[in-house]
Design goal:
Structural class of chain B: alpha+beta
Distance between the termini of chain A: 41 Å
CATH topology of chain A: Arc Repressor Mutant, subunit A
Number of strands of chain B: 22
CATH architecture of chain A: Orthogonal Bundle
Oligomer: heterodimer
Strand content of chain A: 5-15%
CATH class of chain A: Mainly Alpha
Number of strands of chain A: 3
Strand order of the largest sheet of chain A: 1-3-2
Chain lengths: 111, 882
């Protein structure tokens, strides 16, 4: 299960989910909603697509899941970051920033 | 930690599938509810809210699949699913399953049985420490008329012991083929054993399980005993060590018990390994010692041979008077090659034949799978149109094939071991190391691997065809029974023709070997075997050590053996067809050393006066031995025709003189007084007769182990008890050994050829059975598919015989194609068999014709049942049903 083969979008989605969970545990709908909000509605997800990603992250041990009661008294599956997930988010953030900086530099360079 | 957490997740998904699935459902449901709520709170009407939520969500089932993909272990759940589907679909067609697994079991069983022998005999190292370092030493003679190589002498061993370090470590042994007479409180018992040197346990790397082993004192007479003898005679008690063992009247001190399974190379029934007190030899010969050298990894056999030769030469010259003109040198052969010997060729032949049978089985199974694939094409097409990907369908088909293959492999393993149990009993004396065969992991892996491989190879055809056939064509087709698709039919016919070709090749091989056996049994051995009873006496005991008393012993024995029903009695040191005691080098008068071809070797026997007449060996020239040939009269010899032909091409052998053993200018000469017909002594009729020298027993009387032959008019079984009584009356401690009629000896000498023939015949039988079912399958399907056509033809006036002829004809055409291709294969097999054929041409036309006829007849018979079914079908009922 190597990460190198992940395409950019999948990798990006994983990183965004980890970011969304950074503050507090959330359920699936909440995560999708949060990503949309944070991106100021630039990313409009087919909200379902986060579920395969959540399972991928579970398999890697970056997040953990548990059933809890929601604010309006329903049962929902909450996901939270594990310490490994926190480390992964940090390293993903650093390498993303480095990459996006570089891409910016290329795109803005005067030829 | 994260890895562990992930693993727990994957395991949970695998093991608690239904819980995980219902969780996923609940979760998605919850998500959907949230989405709807948000739409509602934005003021969207209820139905529209649900529609929008659904649109944002995407395809639920596809999503679930994607989640399952991500969950991990997907391949495993798929595999479990495939296996489950496979088992279910196989359960629906038990006939197919039985046919496939039986075919595979037969093919794999034969191959595995022979592989387990190959593994034990050829592949596994000998049961000694670092057995690859062990070499057998031989001495090669350059000075003889024909190059000759033999074992070493005790003088060689003693000299080597002093100078072999650091090139090699040497040890020697001499198997005592006629066995030892063990004195026990319950009377004499014959046990097998060998005379060994002190270093044998160390050089072979096997230590005693009890006792200190041989001491370094060369004067002590000591024995190591086998675990079996230890338990039988001493109840496995420790105090057996230090006690005495009496063998052939000599006393040895027991110094150790060797572990079960230990023996000197090439033997496996010894129970005692004795080290007699050392006697210094006075000359270099006789050459009876098997000398083993353990080489350090840095020394190659060639280097070791030349180093040892040059190191030993001065010692041999100084002590034993070995001369430079003898032109001898050592050669080293890996011990395993010596032990395994010529068997490897036979075994590899068997392995090849068994693989051919396996190929036939694979052809058969491929055929069955193709036929089933045709029947199932509709099911597959439906599943494909319901969304199963082509890869998924192929995986499904291959899973089924793998299941069948593994089952066939497991059954084959069972068959192999049932067969080996039978074979072990009949082949122990023919194949060395047979006793080492066991069900070990390589054998199990080979059986299951072959089964799996065969299943997958055979199962690869239907999926390949699946690729080419358009699925909707398949759907359209399978509504009707007429067009199976000509391509499938052609593949199946080619497969069957190939099966027939392979069968013919194996059958021809079996035919050649059986014909060889027939020729061997019909061959004239040079003597008359009927009505001769033989046995061996061991006069090695101390009480026969005085040669002066022996003539009286022989006279007494002869007197007592002249029982009613016994017409003559003879003694000899060797017996035909394969009990040769010794060969000897000799010098012919007028060809003394210094002239080319000075010394040669011949089989060397001492025989009593009546030997030639008793065995009806024809006298060609001169005379046989007579009462006048006494110890005090001039030495005489009778030679065989082969000897006379080789040394006296002019036919003038009578009156010539020769001297046995090493050339001695002052030695006495033996005069040739007669020439007798050729008789094989070494390797039966197969080995052919070699030049032989017979000397008069009366002139060379000595102890040893003479054979006694009786020409009898009675049933040997009835006579034997009185013969035993007659011998015991002279000496109650003298057992009869190696008792057999001459006819039994002749049969025994062809046992190897018989074993080869029978094994090939069994393989050929398997091949024929498999090919017959293959042909039957193809023709039966063919008939089935053409039912309508046949019915129409019958309705239009075709006669039953026309239908019959057409079906059988199509089967025979297949057989003919197979036979033509198979003849080429048969010739190839025959060429590789040529070294084990006796008096049979590898291209023997009778064998090839007979094999072709058998194959054609079997093909015809296999077609007959479907042909009759086609001919006797009621055309109207079929046409009405359509």
């Amino acid at each position: 299960m190597t990460d190198e083969t992940q395409d950019l979008l999948k990798g990006t989605l994983d990183m965004l989910i980890l970011k969304a969970l950074q503050l507090e545990p959330m359920h699936g709908w909440g995560i999708a909603d949060r990503i949309e909000q944070l991106s100021r509605d630039v990313f409009r997800l087919q909200t379902g697509t986060i579920y395969p990603a959540l399972h991928r992250l579970l398999r890697r041990g970056w997040i953990a899941a548990e059933w809890r009661t929601t604010e309006n008294n329903r049962r929902a599956r909450y996901y939270r970051l594990t310490p490994a997930g926190r480390r992964e988010l940090e390293s993903a953030r650093v390498s993303w920033q480095r990459a996006s900086l570089a891409i910016n530099r290329i795109l803005t360079a005067e030829s | 930690m994260s890895r562990f957490r992930g693993l727990v997740h994957v395991l949970r998904c695998l093991l608690r599938r239904s819980t995980v699935e219902s969780e996923l459902n609940a979760e998605l449901h919850e998500h959907f509810a949230h989405e709807v709520e948000r739409q509602l709170s934005a003021g969207v009407p209820a139905t529209e809210a649900r529609r929008r939520a659904a649109a944002r969500f995407g395809n639920v089932e596809a999503l679930k699949e994607a989640v399952r993909d991500e969950r991990g272990g997907r391949w495993l759940t798929d595999l479990v699913g495939d296996v489950r589907i496979g088992l279910r679909s196989l359960r629906r067609s038990p006939g197919f399953v039985v046919a496939v697994t039986l075919s595979l079991a037969l093919g794999v069983g034969g191959t595995t049985a022979i592989f387990s022998v190959v593994n034990a005999v050829l592949l596994r190292p000998l049961p000694y420490r670092e057995a690859g370092e062990l070499q057998m030493m031989r001495v090669r003679w350059g000075g003889l008329a024909a190059p000759f190589s033999g074992s070493l002498s005790f003088a060689d061993y003693l000299s080597l012991r002093e100078v072999s370090a650091p090139t090699a470590e040497v040890a020697t042994y001499m198997p005592f083929s006629q066995g030892f007479t063990l004195t026990t409180p319950a009377g004499p018992e014959v046990i097998q054993g060998a005379i060994v040197s002190t270093e044998i346990p160390r050089v072979l790397g096997v230590s005693p399980i009890a006792g200190p082993g041989f001491s370094e004192d060369p004067e002590a007479t000591q024995a190591l005993i086998a675990e079996s003898l230890w338990r039988r005679q001493f109840g496995g008690r420790q105090d057996a060590i230090g006690r005495n063992l009496t063998l052939d009247g000599f006393v040895y001190t027991i110094v150790g018990v060797m572990p079960r399974g230990f023996d000197v190379p090439g033997y496996h029934e010894s129970e005692a390994w004795i080290r007699p007190g050392r006697r210094e030899p006075t000359r270099r010969g006789p050459f009876f010692q098997s000398v083993i050298a353990r080489l350090p990894p840095s020394v190659t056999p060639a280097i070791a041979a030349s180093r040892l030769t040059s190191a030993v030469t001065p010692l041999l010259r100084e002590r034993y008077g070995v001369k430079a003109e003898d032109r001898w040198r050592y050669s080293l052969t890996p011990l395993k090659d010596v032990v395994v010997g010529e068997v490897s060729r036979t075994l590899l032949l068997f392995q090849g034949a068994a693989l051919l049978v396996l190929l036939i089985a694979i052809g058969n199974v491929a055929n069955l799978m193709l036929a089933r694939g045709t029947v199932r094409s509709r099911e597959l097409a439906v599943r494909a149109s319901l969304g199963a990907s082509r890869g998924r369908l192929i995986r499904q088909l291959l899973t089924e094939s793998a299941l069948l293959g593994l089952t066939g492999g497991a059954l084959g393993l069972g068959l192999a071991f049932a067969g080996l149990e039978v074979g072990r009993r009949s082949a122990t004396s023919l194949i060395p190391r047979m006793d080492e065969i066991r069900l070990d992991s390589p054998v199990v892996c080979v059986a299951l691997g072959l089964g799996l491989g065969a299943g997958l190879i055979a199962g690869a055809l239907p999926p390949l065809r699946l690729r080419f056939v358009r699925l909707n064509d398949m759907l359209r087709d399978s509504g009707r029974t007429s067009s199976e698709g000509e391509r499938g039919g052609r593949t199946r016919r080619v497969l069957v023709a190939a099966e027939i070709a392979l069968t013919l090749a194996v059958l021809a091989g079996a035919g050649l070997l059986l014909r060889t056996l027939g020729r061997l049994e019909a061959a004239n051995p040079g003597f008359e075997a009927g009505g001769v009873l033989t046995f061996q006496l061991s006069l090695a005991n101390t009480r026969y050590s005085d040669p002066a008393r022996l003539p009286a012993f022989f006279a007494d024995l002869e007197q007592r053996l002249r029982l009613p029903g016994v017409t003559s009695v003879a003694y000899s040191t060797s017996l035909p067809p394969d009990r040769l005691a010794m060969g000897n080098n000799f010098t012919l008068e007028g060809r003394q050393p210094g002239t080319p071809g000075a010394q040669d070797v011949a089989e060397w026997l001492w025989v009593s006066r009546e030997y030639f007449t008793l065995l009806r060996i024809p006298l060609e020239q001169g005379r046989g031995f007579e009462p006048d040939d006494r110890p005090d009269s001039p030495d005489v010899a009778v030679v065989s025709e082969a000897f006379a032909r080789r040394h006296f091409p002019d036919g003038q052998a009578l009156g010539k003189r020769l001297q046995g053993g090493d050339w001695n200018p002052r030695g006495s000469w033996t005069t040739i007084v007669g020439v007798v017909g050729d008789v094989p002594y070494e390797r039966g009729v197969w080995g052919g007769a070699q030049p032989t020298v017979y000397k008069a027993y009366a002139q060379n009387i000595g102890a040893g182990s003479p054979y006694v032959s009786l020409r009898i008019t009675e049933d040997p079984q009835l006579l034997l008890p009185s013969v035993r009584r007659a011998v015991l009356a002279i000496d109650p401690e003298l057992p009869l050994r190696d008792v057999a009629t001459m006819e039994e000896r002749l049969r025994g000498s062809t046992a190897e050829a018989r074993f080869r023939g029978m094994l090939f015949a069994i393989l050929a039988g398997l091949a024929v059975m498999l090919a017959a079912t293959g042909i039957y399958g193809v023709i039966a399907t063919h008939v089935n598919q053409r039912r309508r056509e046949t019915a129409v033809r019958r309705a239009l006036g075709a006669r039953r015989s026309d239908v019959l002829r057409q079906v059988v004809g199509s089967g025979l055409r297949l057989a003919l194609a197979g036979i033509v291709a198979g003849l080429a294969g048969a010739l190839a097999i025959a060429r590789s068999l040529s070294s084990v054929l006796y008096d049979v041409d590898p291209r023997d036309p009778t064998v090839l014709a007979a094999a072709s006829l058998i194959v054609a007849a079997v093909a015809g018979l296999a077609c007959l049942i479907p042909a009759l079914r086609a001919a006797y079908v009621d055309p109207m009922s079929i046409l009405r049903n359509e």
